[in-house]
């Protein structure tokens, strides 16, 4: 199958207090389109940095990141932003809903950025899918954590991304809510046929994906496929 | 090959507007303070500009009525035969007026008062009217021994039309009450009320003696006034030689506009300072506003928003907020402009017809917009650099790179704006650079000192001190500290507020007169040599003290170091004006020798060493040992400058620019001045009555009355000064409060965290109080020191006055700033402490 994400010899080095700090060192892997992958590892292992590089939020110090056959390191920040808008969806640990926008407006934003028209119905149907059709005009502050993450899910799928990155999607939720959100995430992902990359500590959640890449100290410790639950 | 797949979505401009609107929804109250600092600044400027605009329009419209003629020639010297010939050939219609100060005596009430006597012949004014009650009296009073008397006098002495007044040796019937004359202001009629009499009877009054100070005016009307300016230019050398001044409609327009230049300039400067404070307010408010938006911007960037579009969203917001603030400011300013003429009407020679000045409104709105955007730009530009990584890493710090070159461009534009706008107010480049550089200097000093403060606090606070102190002080240098921003904004606001307060004090001191119980309160002048003894006896018979008796001799400068008026084009002013000098053998208490040696007496044939007031000497460009030839009523006297004196002009006594030693001028034509102190208004009235009856040519000024009038007028000037300065100060306070309030958001999260960890409300309040107290004290002290230095420089170089900061008000100002900073800081954190931590954590999370 065709790869949607190719990571070749990627390193990330930060300069801190006058000395170089290697956060990622010579990372290599590919992800096939439509698959589900978990990136796990202890705190400080470089998971979030890796996610940032894969999604084009940051540039690698060396190596290449190809997303949907686009070499991200050759693009400037605005071109990477366009790539994110077209091909990438995000789910954040702390939801990152825009506080001044209603739930509906939050879901509409990625499509509006594309200049798409008549998107309200589509956004409402997504909110309906996550069970929040009746809360569409509520602001984030008026929603619970679980509800906010559900809006975030609807937003992530609104632009029908080729690949969806989820950074600790249940990190800020209780067990019961986490369960519901994860089910919703996988259901939506199945319907849309999107590639899903989840960065998580949660091994149970990782086990629900088809493949787990474990990293530690900035290098890949293991890369195993498992039976998809 | 890969790049071909890169999408290039085009965001519609309308969506940016929509997003700007949405994004501002929940933060509009946060921008209220930003708006208010712009509102007050713009309001002050629009009020001042509109007033200036209306005044200029009315001066232009009423200029002909100010002069009352197409050409006015005026001389304080006698008219030579040759000049009289020229005067008789000018104009298609002519009038003549002689003006001098004289006492008049109201026969019915027995009251007397010094007035400005105008002896008129002809149909002047040709434009406008002398307004009287009954109407028409101005046209008929010249037919007989009749007078027009100013209405303030009529009221003071309860006189009626038909009553009589005695002017010198002649009695005139009051033909009308004078309500308005061309070019006359409220203030001039209050201090020296006018009385018109027909010129044909002037000689019979016997008031005109040798040495009397009379001004002769010749009014001309032209059927075709277009050539008047050219004519004046042609006549100029002759007029100058004969000591004549020419006044035309055009020159009066300029002159009247110029006399309000200082008032306008002060008003504009206060408005400008209010606006500069507004700039500081904009800068600090937007800085914190964008900090709070960091997460939202990072998220939008994650979702695919380009950096340029993120910048535009916030630029659109600032544009509309700035526009709203400017519109509110313009409306407020337009309202205030209607108040200014009410207060200033006594000083205005024209009837002010206040109307909305669209020019001023337009200028105000444009300025408000420019300032809003320009001073928000440094923070707005940083929006372009916000990384999407901030959305997944709360602690993401951008790697230190080179400063955005656009930032330098913006700083350059800000400097150019302040420089350009200051020039528009000051009109001289020296003052403009001095002012702009002072602000830049204050800015840099505050930045450097805030960094020094952070360094010192980090190094010097002992680990052994209590947790509350350590935490409070640590807030000054930890990440996300507000020390730099608050020191600059509090420091600059304090510097501006204090400078305005000090300058207001300097201005008020300049316009206030010193009058004490031991000071004279009555001046008698125009006393002839033959009258001195008689008047001394009369004064003593009223048991009044002879406090100051000096002779006054009128003269002109003929030569300076061998150069005559015509040959020294660089020093024309020195030869032009008439000088009133005296002679004395000792210095008075108001005089101090600053250079050379004082000579009090001279023998015949000896060199005559005179003493000059030092600023007068500077003006006519002479120093010690320079030679001056004086023309005393036709006789030339050779002198040498022997000494320079510093004269305290504010003392209530006669002071002179030129003082001769005794032994030279005793026989020259002269009059005397006598000063005394009258204990009550009854004694004053009786004494004045006696003087007028026995010495009709002697003029008496009741200083108590004049001082009372001046007090009233000065309190009005003071009100305007305080009002405008108050405006700027109010803006300063708002900026101060807004700086502290906006900084509180940085402290909210950690206050909640501390609360969650079990810190008591009192402990958190104390930590905040320590931080704000130290910041407030430091910034206010620096601001105050800068302000004292600035005020001293202004006093010395701009107002030519001494400056000693008033201790108590200065301490009070300092204390108020510190108190305000601490109170605002602590009170703003109280609202956080009154709610459960979880509720606030959730709100903050969103």
Automatic annotation (TrEMBL), chain A:
SMART domains linked: AAA
Gene Ontology MF, one: ATP binding
GO CC term, one of those recorded: membrane protein complex
Pfam families, sorted: ABC_tran
CDD domains per UniProt: ABC_MJ0796_LolCDE_FtsE (cd03255)
InterPro entries: AAA+_ATPase, ABC_transporter-like_ATP-bd, ABC_transporter-like_CS, MacB-like_ATP-bd, P-loop_NTPase
Superkingdom as given in the UniProt entry: Bacteria
Domain spans labelled ABC transporter: 5-229
Keywords: ATP-binding, Nucleotide-binding, Translocase, Transport
Record-stated family: Belongs to the ABC transporter superfamily. Macrolide exporter (TC 3.A.1.122) family.
Name listed for the protein in its UniProt record: ABC transporter
Automatic annotation (TrEMBL), chain B:
Protein name: ABC transporter permease
Keywords: Cell membrane, Membrane, Transmembrane, Transmembrane helix
Residues passing through the membrane, by range: 31-51, 266-290, 311-336, 356-377, 408-426, 432-457, 484-507, 719-741, 772-795, 807-827
Domain MacB-like periplasmic core: 32-236
Lineage: Bacteria, Pseudomonadati, Bacteroidota, Sphingobacteriia, Sphingobacteriales
Signal peptide: none
Organism the protein comes from: Pedobacter yonginense
Any one of the GO CC terms: plasma membrane
Subcellular localization(s) per the UniProt record: Cell membrane
UniProt key word Methyltransferase: no
Pfam families assigned to the protein according to its UniProt record, in alphabetical order: FtsX, MacB_PCD
Residue span(s) of domain ABC3 transporter permease C-terminal: 271-388, 723-837
Membrane topology value: Multi-pass membrane protein
């Amino acid at each position: 199958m065709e790869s949607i994400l190719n990571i070749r010899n990627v390193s990330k080095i930060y300069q801190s207090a006058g000395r170089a700090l290697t956060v990622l060192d010579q990372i290599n892997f590919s992800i096939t389109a439509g698959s589900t992958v978990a990136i796990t590892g202890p705190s400080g292992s470089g998971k979030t940095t890796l996610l940032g590089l894969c999604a084009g939020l940051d540039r690698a110090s060396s190596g290449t990141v190809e997303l949907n056959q686009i070499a991200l390191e050759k693009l400037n920040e605005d071109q990477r932003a366009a790539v994110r808008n077209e091909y990438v969806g995000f789910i954040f640990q702390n939801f990152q809903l825009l506080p001044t926008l209603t739930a509906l407006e939050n879901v509409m934003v990625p499509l509006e950025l594309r200049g798409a028209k008549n998107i309200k119905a589509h956004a409402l149907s997504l909110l309906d899918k996550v069970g929040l059709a009746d809360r569409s005009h509520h602001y984030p502050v008026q929603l619970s954590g679980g509800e906010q993450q559900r809006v975030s899910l609807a937003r992530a799928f609104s632009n029908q991304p080729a690949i969806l990155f989820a950074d600790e999607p249940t990190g800020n939720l209780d067990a019961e809510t986490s369960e519901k959100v994860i089910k919703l995430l996988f259901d939506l992902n199945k319907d849309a046929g999107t590639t899903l990359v989840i960065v998580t500590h949660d091994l149970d959640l990782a086990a629900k994906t088809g493949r787990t890449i474990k990293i530690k100290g900035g290098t890949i410790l293991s890369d195993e496929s498992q039976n998809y639950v | 090959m890969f790049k071909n797949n890169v999408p290039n979505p085009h965001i519609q401009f309308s969506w940016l507007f929509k997003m700007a609107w949405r994004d501002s929804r929940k933060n509009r109250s946060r921008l209220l303070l930003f708006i208010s600092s712009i509102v007050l600044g713009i309001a002050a400027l629009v009020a001042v500009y509109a007033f200036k605009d209306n005044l200029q329009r009315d001066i232009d419209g009423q200029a002909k009525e100010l002069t009352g003629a197409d050409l006015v020639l005026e001389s304080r010297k006698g008219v030579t035969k040759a000049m009289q010939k020229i005067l008789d050939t000018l104009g298609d219609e002519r009038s003549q007026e002689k003006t001098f100060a004289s006492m008049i005596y109201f026969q019915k009430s027995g009251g007397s008062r010094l007035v400005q006597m105008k002896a008129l012949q002809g149909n002047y004014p040709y434009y406008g009217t002398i307004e009287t009650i009954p109407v028409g009296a101005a046209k008929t009073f010249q037919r007989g021994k009749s007078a027009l008397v100013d209405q303030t006098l009529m009221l003071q002495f309860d006189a009626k039309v038909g009553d009589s007044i005695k002017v010198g040796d002649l009695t005139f019937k009051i033909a009308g009450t004078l309500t308005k004359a061309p070019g006359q202001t409220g203030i001039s009629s209050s201090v020296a009320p006018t009385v018109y009499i027909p010129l044909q009877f002037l000689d019979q009054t016997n008031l005109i003696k040798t040495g009397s100070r009379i001004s002769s005016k010749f009014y001309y009307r032209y059927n075709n006034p277009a050539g008047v300016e050219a004519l004046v230019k042609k006549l100029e050398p002759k007029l100058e030689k004969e000591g004549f001044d020419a006044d035309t409609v055009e020159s009066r327009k300029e002159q009247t506009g110029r006399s309000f230049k200082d008032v306008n300039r002060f008003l504009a400067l206060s408005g400008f300072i209010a606006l500069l404070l507004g700039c500081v307010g904009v800068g600090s408010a937007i800085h914190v506003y964008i900090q709070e938006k960091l997460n939202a911007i990072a998220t939008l960037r994650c979702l695919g928003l380009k950096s340029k579009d993120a910048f535009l969203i916030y630029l659109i917001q600032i544009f509309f907020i700035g526009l709203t603030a400017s519109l509110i400011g313009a409306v407020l300013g337009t309202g205030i402009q209607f108040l200014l003429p009410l207060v200033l009407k006594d000083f205005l020679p024209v009837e002010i017809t206040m109307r909305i000045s669209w020019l001023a409104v337009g200028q105000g709105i444009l300025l408000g917009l420019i300032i809003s955007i320009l001073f928000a730009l440094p923070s707005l530009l940083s929006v372009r650099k916000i990384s999407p990584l901030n959305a997944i890493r709360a602690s993401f710090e951008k790697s230190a790179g080179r400063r955005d070159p656009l930032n330098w461009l913006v700083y350059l534009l800000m400097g150019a704006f302040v420089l350009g706008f200051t020039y528009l107010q000051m009109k001289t480049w020296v003052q403009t650079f001095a002012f702009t550089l002072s602000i830049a200097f204050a800015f840099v000093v505050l930045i450097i000192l805030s960094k020094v403060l952070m360094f010192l606090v980090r190094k010097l606070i002992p680990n052994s001190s209590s947790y509350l102190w350590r935490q409070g002080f640590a807030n000054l240098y930890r990440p996300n500290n507000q020390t730099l921003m608050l020191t600059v904004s509090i420091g600059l606001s304090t510097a501006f507020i204090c400078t305005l307060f000090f300058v207001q004090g300097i201005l008020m001191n300049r316009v206030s007169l010193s009058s004490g119980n031991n000071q004279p309160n009555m001046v008698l002048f125009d006393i002839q040599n033959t009258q001195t003894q008689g008047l001394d006896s009369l004064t003593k018979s009223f048991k009044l003290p002879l406090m100051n008796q000096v002779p006054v001799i009128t003269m002109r400068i003929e030569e300076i170091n061998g150069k005559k008026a015509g040959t020294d084009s660089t020093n024309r002013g020195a030869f032009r004006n008439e000088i009133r000098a005296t002679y004395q053998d000792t210095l008075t208490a108001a005089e101090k020798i600053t250079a050379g040696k004082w000579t009090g007496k001279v023998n015949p044939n000896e060199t005559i060493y005179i003493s000059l007031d030092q600023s007068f000497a500077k003006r006519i460009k002479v120093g010690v040992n320079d030679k001056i030839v004086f023309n005393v009523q036709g006789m030339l006297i050779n002198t040498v400058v022997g000494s320079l004196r510093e004269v305290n002009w504010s003392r209530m006594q006669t002071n002179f620019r030129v003082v001769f030693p005794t032994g030279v001028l005793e026989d020259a034509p002269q009059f005397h001045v006598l000063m005394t102190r009258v204990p009550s208004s009854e004694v004053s009235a009786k004494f004045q009555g006696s003087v007028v009856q026995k010495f009709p040519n002697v003029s008496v000024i009741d200083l108590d009355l004049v001082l009372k009038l001046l007090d009233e007028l000065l309190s009005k000037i003071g009100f305007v000064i305080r009002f405008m300065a108050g405006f700027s100060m109010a803006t300063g306070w708002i900026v101060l409060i807004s700086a502290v309030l906006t900084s509180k958001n940085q402290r909210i999260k950690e206050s909640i965290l501390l609360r969650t960890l079990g810190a008591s409300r009192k402990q958190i309040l104390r930590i905040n109080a320590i931080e704000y107290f130290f910041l407030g004290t430091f910034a206010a002290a620096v601001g105050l020191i800068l302000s004292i230095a600035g005020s001293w420089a202004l006093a010395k170089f701009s107002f030519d006055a001494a400056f000693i900061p008033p201790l108590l008000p200065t301490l009070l100002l300092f204390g108020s700033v510190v108190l305000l900073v601490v109170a605002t800081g602590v009170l703003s954190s109280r609202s956080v402490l009154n709610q459960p931590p979880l509720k606030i954590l959730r709100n903050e999370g969103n």
